[in-house]
Amino acid sequence: MSIPTIIVERLNKNFGHSRVLEDVSFEITPGEIVALIGPSGSGKSTLMRHLVGLTCCNRDRGGRVSLLGREIQASGRLRRASRGQRCRVGYIFQQFNLVNRLSVLTNVLIGQLGRMPRARALLGRFSDEERQRALQCLARVGLEGMAYQRANTLSGGQQQRVAIARVLMQDADVILADEPIASLDPRSAREVMEILERIHAEDGRTVVITLHQVDIARRYCHRAIALKDGRLYFDGKTSELTDARLKTLYENAGLDEL
Ligand code: ADP
Ligand code: MG
């Protein structure tokens, strides 16, 4: 059996006196596509931040998190991931996080920086071969024709596709996307989900996506992990997310979240 890509074991997180994550445990195996769902404030983003080491668990009974076979945090201690390991994880944000004044192509090339020798990365010089590869990554998200435009001239949906091309350029094995479609109109949201599904299916990359639309989670992801008030409420096939379960999951949340 292969080593799980992600192991979260009895993870606990408090911010001051408020408990944000409580005894959360799950494993994700290589090549899965998983939706992380739950009402707002249930701890989804905090959990994602744990997976990349942007947040550390509590010192007492904090639990542990392993990524790609290495423990990255345990009992309040953060272990710095090696550069090689960091390159294997790509993060996609709700607000795209592109560099506005740079071209689309340069934004994609930036995905390569972590893999370049440090001295060359500082100079920010890219080879013709790297440019060619960046154009191929843009072609995979359907934006090769926009390579030389400034990033901020693109629509939200297009900017999110550039962000996906950037993680393709990085050649990340694991893609973590926190609410990647929350700021998009329905059509752009569908395009972004289709691209994420395709790169999961074609390349075998592991993809974890936080979503607040359950119907989208059902359509694109085989498995869902649901958090409710910081606790694991459901972990299983999206097809087993029954209406009764969803009703309980969202019982204290506004109807618009469903
Ligand atoms: P979700 O992404 O599911 O909406 P979050 O992980 O963003 O939930 O937040 C979960 C809870 O943790 C919320 O109550 C939020 O206010 C709290 N929280 C998140 N980050 C911090 C922080 N840095 N300091 C204090 N409280 C925080
Ligand atoms: Mg969030």
From TrEMBL:
Keywords (A to Z) from UniProt: ATP-binding, Cell membrane, Membrane, Nucleotide-binding, Translocase, Transport
Membrane topology designation: Peripheral membrane protein
Domain ABC transporter: residue ranges: 6-254
Superkingdom as given in the UniProt entry: Bacteria
Pfam families reported for this sequence: ABC_tran (PF00005)
Record carries keyword Nucleotide-binding: yes
Presence of keyword Kinase: no
InterPro entries, A to Z: AAA+_ATPase, ABC_transporter-like_ATP-bd, ABC_transporter-like_CS, ABC_transpr_PhnC, MetN_ABC_transporter-like, P-loop_NTPase
PROSITE patterns tied to this protein: ABC_TRANSPORTER_1 (PS00211), ABC_TRANSPORTER_2 (PS50893)
GO MF term set: ATP binding
SUPFAM superfamilies given in the database record: P-loop containing nucleoside triphosphate hydrolases
Subcellular location: Cell inner membrane
PANTHER family: AMINO ACID IMPORT ATP-BINDING PROTEIN (PTHR43166), PHOSPHONATES IMPORT ATP-BINDING PROTEIN PHNC (PTHR43166:SF6)
Name the UniProt record assigns to this protein: Phosphonate ABC transporter ATP-binding protein
Gene this chain is encoded by: phnC
